[in-house]
Task: structure prediction
Amino acid sequence: MAEELLIGENLSKEEKYKALLPQLKGLVSYETDLIANLANLTAALKTTFNFFWVGFYLVKEDELVLGPFQGPIACTRIAKGRGVCGTSWQQAKTIVVPNVDEFPGHIACSSASKSEIVLPIFNHAKEVVMILDVDSELLSTFDEIDEKYLSEVIILIETLL
Ligand code: SME
Result:
């Protein structure tokens, strides 16, 4: 398998996502272990966009439990309905937060995190089985481009479940 991603440094954000997606498909096609693939996906997103924190929380019984991630250490467990991640799980929908200080109940794993996007990932029974959380040190980092292409990453992950 390719050992490094090929993403031009001067590309726009959308161009980077377009260049990255086929490489992500290739990356996960060589490995059957879900955790190994999730781990590499977080590394690919973190290194391509230099996001502050990229990671998965896995639904385990009645909580989200920290899974593969890249970035500073984070909260290990999040209750359903708590913070952005717990709310995305409860509502089974993507949440974009331009300013975490204005999101009621936001869980501040790090005070450096200023904006975030959280996307739910569904199994074949349409249950949320994990969430993808991407955090930025800047306000208003995430827009419809991130939502569109991170949704493609989610669809890729759902094919692995
Ligand atoms: N920001 C999240 C908590 C997880 S971390 O930021 C890694 C939230 O409020 O759900």
